[in-house]
Amino acid sequence: MPKYDYIIAGGGCAGLSLAYQISRSKLRNKKVLIIDKSVKNTNDRTWSFWHQEATHFDHLFYRQWQQIRFINQEYNEVHELKDWRYSMLRGIDFYEYIYEELAQNPNIDKLYATIEELGEEDERVFVQTNEGRYEGDWLFNSCFKDEALAKEPARYHYLLQHFLGWVIEVEEDIFTPDCPTMFDFRTQQAEEVRFLYTLPFSKNKALVEYTIFGRELYTQDFYEKELKQYLEAVLKLKSYKIHEVEKGCIPMYDHPFETFPSPRTVHIGTLGGRAKPSTGYAFLRIQEQSRQLVKALLETGKPQYTIQDYSRYQYYDTLLLNILRDKGDRISDIFTEMFKNNPIQRIFRFLDASASPYDDFRIMWSVPWQPFLEAIWKTRKQRSRVETQ
Ligand SMILES: Cc1cc2nc3c(=O)[nH]c(=O)nc-3n(C[C@H](O)[C@H](O)[C@H](O)COP(=O)(O)OP(=O)(O)OC[C@H]3O[C@@H](n4cnc5c(N)ncnc54)[C@H](O)[C@@H]3O)c2cc1C
Q1: CB of 15 shorter than 6 A to ligand 1
Q2: Amino acid 387: pLDDT
Q3: Does the beta carbon of 143 lie inside 6 Å of ligand 1?
Q4: Cys-Cys link to 244, which of 60, 140, 167, 291 (CB 3.0-4.6 A)?
Q5: What are the mean pLDDT values of the chain's consecutive 10-residue runs (389 residues total)?
Q6: Does ligand 1 have an atom closer than 6 angstroms to the CB of 45?
Q7: Residue of 9, 296, 300 whose CA lies nearest to 140
Q8: Interval between CA 37 and ligand 1 midpoint (Å)
Q9: What is the pLDDT of residue 386?
Q10: Helix-strand-coil percent breakdown of the chain, rounded to 5?
Q11: What pLDDT score was predicted for residue 329?
Q12: In sequence order, what are the beta bridge partners of 267?
């Protein structure tokens, strides 16, 4: 059995991104094993994200836009992105491209097997699968298991971003191909955050997705009913053909995710806390983590890198999660004020945790204060109660 330098547990977004960046670097002669329980041969997800810088995958973008629309009952505005872009990458295009790239590198092995156990022994890492045991020097784990997280609901917030989307085709030309709708709050809020977004492919084809930030999942029927209601009552569509379905759930937790849980193991992707708690966006954060890991391996031979201090943003995430959890139906108003009173570029920087303190101040000044003051008071009380227990 070969001795691996790196074992990557989970060959999804984070595992494949890391393998790709390793293979494209001076580490390409390292022996790498990627283990996943299944081959990625369907379009199981679509990544969209805003960005300024080029990514490794720009040539694969399915669509890219230079403006976005925000809508609620009384506000409907198109925001020009200027030097930013909103891009869409289909999962299947990403998987196929990376599989092809990795196939050119004889040092990278892929194994389709279920991981049963993983850990460290005698300064080596091991992964036990239903196909056998594998050993290596470093382990990069992206197998997130929600039930394995020791949750502390008295201290942290645990929300879920859950959604159902349909790629639909209609007879009428009703979509504006160069302008996606990022938020449309014209749907019942029911004390949680509910909105729709539309990513148009042409005048008569688009991905329309119904999204909830809330505490619990619903039955399939529920999402279908709400999505149908939006298409028929709000977009006034009489008939449409469903070509593809996207369904998913992303954790929105302020529970700290450990990146370096033990000396030779690194947690990557969702397991490594790469999904931003208040937005669920993860794709670019995963690319950045892969870049940091490769840089650290090249410079020091070890994957440990200095994690940027996001403490003020962790606090903002906690406040926002508190409002999302307890006052979800206020989010439409808060977001409306934020979009009305700030350039979209500032909002993107703020949501990306890369804004200046001045940007933070302008954003905070522009939104209703009361929910935030309540959230500050409640989270302080919550934490002090936990600390005195
Ligand atoms: C439907 C959907 C849409 C999303 N859209 C966006 C978006 O638009 N923008 C954005 O920024 N983020 C988005 N996200 C969030 C995030 O980008 C993705 O979830 C991303 O795929 C996370 O990467 P990951 O590698 O951590 O997890 P995954 O991509 O899920 O990879 C984990 C891999 O581990 C494997 N695995 C797990 N357990 C085992 C086991 N025991 N044995 C073997 N293999 C195992 C799985 O098969 C999987 O392939 C979306 C998420 C979902 C679910």
Answers
A1: yes
A2: 73
A3: yes
A4: 167
A5: 91 98 98 98 97 97 98 95 98 98 98 98 96 97 96 94 98 96 94 96 98 96 97 96 97 95 98 95 97 98 88 91 92 94 96 91 92 89 77
A6: yes
A7: 9
A8: 13
A9: 77
A10: 35, 30, 35
A11: 87
A12: 141
Q: Is 60 left (phi over 0), alpha (psi -120 to 50) or beta?
A: alpha
**Closest to 355 (Cα-Cα) out of 307, 292, 310, 291:** 310
The pLDDT, as a whole number, for residue 322 is 94
Output the CA 12–ligand 1 centroid distance in Å.
6
**Type of residue at 237:** L
Whether 48 is in the pocket of ligand 1, judged by its Cβ within 6 Å, is yes
Look at residues 36, 27, 37, 26 and name the one whose alpha carbon lies nearest to residue 4: 27
Domains located in the chain, CATH noted: 4-64+91-147+261-300 (3.50.50.60), 159-250 (3.30.9.10), 320-388 (no CATH)
Residues whose CB falls within 8 Å of the CB of residue 343, separated by 6 or more in sequence, listed in order = 79
Contact between 111 and 87 under an 8 Å Cβ cutoff? The reply is no
Q: Whose CA is nearest to atom 37 of ligand 1?
A: 143
**What span, in angstroms and rounded, lies between the C-alpha atoms of 352 and 330?**
22
C-alpha–C-alpha distance, residues 265 and 271, integer Å = 12
